[in-house]
């Protein structure tokens, strides 16, 4: 089986789907000839032709709107927004249109599009190349939100997203495109090929939407994470000496409540980790969900480790990024509580 | 059944790609001095053909020709030339600093220096600029200290923006330079709003903004044109057509279908199309638009036709998507070279003086850089205080941020 980093796995997913389904096409800023600023669409234009993988004007609203129109025709467009930080001009098209087409037309029209976009910090990108805007989208009825944390999942989830008949926002944690960064920024990051999750089948396979993965079993405390923070959580658990159970949510909407609840009922403790700002972050939804379902099993208050409620500051990357130091403290608090 | 071919989807492609010889045969240029200069109160309808021509003052021999010649005195031209040299030397040094790992990112404006510097010369010092990330020349021409710019690029303890912004995202109200956003185009309609405010207050200051060719595809470009036209806002709306938006040629932004200047026609705006590598032409067009705006006659859209001579940023490698010697083949040349040739042609400058001026600029940059580096570079030396990270989110720090700051332990 070939070894792929996350970029290659995403590229492979697009390649497989472009080959399999003539209704699939992909476009976005610098996506065509150049193959995307992160190279996710590298070689696809050459292989599949100019009309199936192409460059667009710099207009995110236009990109998403035309994808909606194509979806209404019956195509399955996969668009790239170059950075999640630049998705906001398309917000109206996503929130008011893509997410509601099915509902408002009683199923007459649908928008089976995928919006891929790199998100998250840890790359010294400053406030406009580092954001984690997932909660702005999970709040929207009718929109699925997916975030992979390994090359294997990235490919399988992207194929599922493309085959899904509803609009899917597919957020790619760019910090772990090349290797699973665990938050220890002063240590080198091993490339993906050192990890089993980089064994990615060449052909078609899916990882289902709406299913979390228990990536480490444990009995002391449940850690809920997604994207880059899955790897931070794993490293933190390892270094805390605790027997933590780490759950990679993989899909935020629809959320795999069952996996979360089963785990928290077992451990009685829960730490939630995300990089996005604290207030109204997805952690608030997770915390409420755990409380609603596991109140009588909880031995300690639920802990949230998140980015601070400030824009992402360029010079303070590692003070802002919720790294292992803060996660380990939260794990300890959860054990004491 | 009509005898018609089936529909097919058109996706534009540039004439050349890596490995090809550069080909600018499709570029149509007006001759220097050939384009008429309307009165500043001319009706946009009567001057719409200017959106398809190219205002040029300097010819290939360095002669200044025609009605658009601003007839600047040689001393002003020499100062402007030095500012362009300084901008280029600054860019080269900061680009190198990024390569040396002293900062995370940098963007040059090489080949486009005239666009910003000539505008700074043609506008009043109090006029307000809403730039994109490629008009560092405005700050340099307005005398913003180089060392301050470097402190920002290095996110060090003396960074006026406290380490918050990506390098080159400067801000200086004192220099009439609006805080740069990473989100393309947002500043364009904001400049219109600033200009509307100036009109509302009966002020005499005007605003100007700049976006790239690629950015004209954003909705904000169109909001700016529409609001500026409706409210006759005293603003100069500049499109810097350097023909590339990262890897996408201007055809992807619609540049093959019509000129960027011509976008203004539908909004009823006067639209000028200018040789962006001709300092005198940029100066003259800006001055015309500024005069018109200050006379309460409203906004002008100016397209500056130029060429992005280097990569988009330090993260880019243009040899992957365009012929590597494209910039050298670009028929409108280099703005510094062209102003130099003009000054020499009129007997006000020499190659020796040029060399000395270049060396001076490099030295000035070197001295400033030494000072900035002595303070600190990204992550090294004296850094901004971490405490400041929670400031300026709001005017007064709310309780939840105070608590978060405590949690962080500072
Ligand atoms: C809203 C938004 N979308 C995308 C980007 C990413 N991006 C940064 S610069 C750039 C190209 C801009 O090209 P152009 O407007 O021609 O300006 P130039 O870089 O040539 O000066 C792109 C796509 C962004 N910064 N903001
Ligand atoms: Mg451009």
Give the SSE map.
The complex is a heterodimer of chains A (337) and B (410).
Chain A: H1 6-20, E1 24-28, H2 44-48, E2 53-55, H3 60-73, E3 76-80, H4 91-98, H5 101-104, E4 114-119, H6 134-138, E5 144-146, H7 151-163, E6 168-173, E7 213-216, E8 221-225, H8 228-240, E9 244-248, E10 251-253, H9 257-267, E11 270-277, H10 282-294, E12 303-307, H11 317-320, H12 324-336
Parallel strand pairs in A: 1-2, 1-3, 3-4, 4-6, 5-6, 8-9, 8-11, 11-12
Antiparallel strand pairs in A: 5-10, 7-9
Chain B: H1 74-99, H2 113-122, E1 128-130, H3 136-141, H4 146-154, H5 187-200, E2 207-212, H6 219-230, E3 235-241, E4 244-245, E5 248-249, E6 271-275, H7 279-294, E7 300-305, H8 326-329, H9 335-345, H10 351-375, E8 376-377, E9 380-381, H11 399-408
Residues 212-214, 242, 244-245, 308 of chain B line the site of magnesium ion.
Structural class of chain B: alpha/beta
Share of helix of chain B, binned: 25-40%
Q: Give the strand order of the largest sheet of chain A, numbering strands 1, 2, ... along the chain.
A: 2-1-3-4-6-5-10
The neighbouring-strand order within the major sheet of chain B is: 1-2-3-7-6
CATH homology superfamily of the largest domain in chain B: Thiamin diphosphate (ThDP)-binding fold, Pyr/PP domains
Distance between the termini of chain B: 77 Å
Q: Which structural category do the helix and sheet elements of chain A fall into?
A: alpha/beta
Unique bound compounds = thiamine diphosphate, magnesium ion
Instruction: Predict the CATH topology of the largest domain in chain A.
Output: Rossmann fold
Number of beta-strand segments of chain B: 9
How far the N terminus sits from the C terminus of chain A, by CA atoms, comes to 46 Å
CA-based shape of chain A:
globular
How many domains of chain B? The number is 2
Total strands of chain A: 12
